[in-house]
Amino acid sequence: MNMKYKGEMRTITGNAAAAYGAMLCRPDVVALYPITPQTEVVEQLSRFSADGLLDAEMVEVEGENSAMNIVAAAAISGGRVFTASSSWGLAFMYDALLQTSGFRAPVVMVNVNREMPGILAVSTGQQDMIGTRDVGWIQIIAEDCQEILDLVIMAYRLAEDFDIQVPVMVNYDGFYLSYLSEGVNIPAREEVDVFLAPLKEQPERPKLVPGGPLGCGTHGIEKGFVELRYKHCAAMERAKNKFDEIDRLFGESFERSYGGQIEEYYMEDAEIALLASGSASGTVKKVIDSKRKHGLKIGLVKLRMFRPFPSERLSRAFRGKKAIGVIDRSICFGWDCGPIYMELRALSSEIGLIPMMSFIDGLANMDISIVHIERMIDSVYAASQGKPYQRVNWVILEE
Amino acid sequence: MIEVRFHGRGGQGAVTAARILSNAFVRQGKFSSSFPMFGFERRGAPVTAFMRFDENPIREKTQIYNPDCLVVLDPSQRNSPLIYDGLKPNGILILNSAKPIKEKPHKHLSRAGIVDAETIASEELGFPSPNTCILGAFAAVTGWIGLDYIFSSLEQYFSGDILERNIRSAERGFREMGVIQW
After folding, report:
1. Which residues on A lie below 8 Å from B145 (Cβ)?
2. Nearest CA of chain A to the CA of B124: how many Å?
């Protein structure tokens, strides 16, 4: 492709970046219900619609459950769709999330990460994303406002790919990113059109049309159901390499690429490493820069794709390291550690028996601060030197 | 990197002020980011906002613990020790208040700009929203940003008559603030 990039720089919030990303992809149907800290996405898209920049059917809904049902139905009717939610809004569409992925409906949504239970916990945290990790959606995570916009565009390439046809949830931290204002390069509409054009060249997906009966969704009993499950799981496995490829193509078109399923930061010669996701990974990079100046060989793996879990690439990235720390902005009830940590532990036999430490931090709007990250790195380093270490650390409670 | 912390109350426009300022720095060719911290959106509840600018990309997404500058939109917090928490030596204060500063409020302060932003805003906007006025004072006291960049940034958030009024409010903040050196 390799065209001259014509983007426009604007200072906008993460929520506005999500709305710009959706608008540029020209959805046919948009159904949204507002919730803190996502409301601005609704406002911005409504403004785009009123200003004539977004030619979509904007459906006013009475709640999130309806929003998801509407976009799922529109998607299996052949439309491109968008919705956004957060926290208990996401919980309120839980059954619809399962139905949508069972339909293999290529819905794209953003979930602005917020604590649970939603009614009182108006603060950041990834608990909502974690609570929906087994609903059969692809889940990807952004680090900053630019990546939010870029991921929404990439999400359409992934969800609507004929070999995938699985809904995609783009996650970003509420408050720390939803309200973060920074310079964002907004691609020109025609450039996004060109990037999404290959979706039109693939075989047409099965469509619900008036008068034409179509069975869809994970229903029925026994073997038919199982076969659908098997195919859904296989599509999610295919989504891993597909996401790497889409990221590479995005880089060719827009001169920005992020590494696909994971981003590796100074991992090549790293002796110890952290695994982080979302806004915290930006802060970790800053701390690693200063630790590297003092000679500490530390690297970061930024988890960009949580579902499907990038097991092959994570195993390769961490193999041969002396100790690893995992930062979780959520908890895993029933285990004593963070959920991403728990999933990484499932790769222990591939990575090797090295110290792996769980750091639970940043719950309920608490800051994953530079001081906290320095402390995590110090303890991972000590563990790498054979010193005794605490496997699970509630960083905030240590103060 | 320079770090600025805003202290206000819901409804005063601290969040918007931080955004407008970030936008102005980006227009000036710098890297800049800002974000607020609050729970529910409520009028009157304390709001803190954080703004950074630098020559290099800003990757940390953390709150600001050691600000170079404080912008205090809420005069009732002017004597609260909490707002001065972590202030760096040679710190700068921009204060919205009708009353003068008699004693140096914190040992690390080297300069303060004070402006009666609520009165100016009432006269120019018709309601006491001190946020755009105080940005004019910020430009005058710090010298970090040209007033023109603040004007052009305002165009992204307002239009027509209300834009003109906000530009006048910022311009009066620039002209009418008083500076104290320690």
Report:
1. none
2. 26
ipTM rounded to 2 decimals: 0.94
Residue A121: predicted pLDDT:
83
- CATH homologous superfamily of A8-254 equals Thiamin diphosphate (ThDP)-binding fold, Pyr/PP domains (3.40.50.970)
Name chain B contacts of A9, Cβ cutoff 8 Å.
Answer: 26
Chain A residues within 8 A of B62 when measuring between CB atoms: 283, 367-370
DSSP state of A212: B
- Using 50, 70 and 90 to split pLDDT, how confident is the model at A1? very low
**DSSP helix/strand/coil, A197:** coil
**Residue B170 bridge partners (DSSP):** none
The DSSP secondary structure of A108-158, one letter per residue, reads: EEEEEE--SSTTT--S--SHHHHHTTTSS-EEEE-SSHHHHHHHHHHHHHH
Q: CB distance from A133 to chain B under 8 Å?
A: no
Q: Do A285 and B58 touch (CB under 8 A)?
A: no
CB contact under 8 A, B19 and A181: yes
Mean pLDDT for A327-336 is 96
- Considering CB atoms only, which of A122, A182, A370 is closest to B62? A370
Percent of chain A with pLDDT over 90: 91
- Tell me the shortest Cα–Cα distance from B28 to chain A, in angstroms: 12
pLDDT tens for A112-161 read 999 998 677 889 999 999 999 999 999 999 999 999 999 999 999 999 99
pLDDT tens-place string over residues A130-142: 999 999 999 999 9
The answer for A222, left when phi > 0, alpha when psi is -120 to 50, beta otherwise, is left
Architecture of domain A262-398: 3-Layer(aba) Sandwich (3.40)
Q: Is the peptide bond preceding residue A37 cis, with omega within 30 degrees of 0?
A: yes
Under CATH, what is the fold of the domain B2-181? Pyruvate-ferredoxin Oxidoreductase; domain 3 (3.40.920)
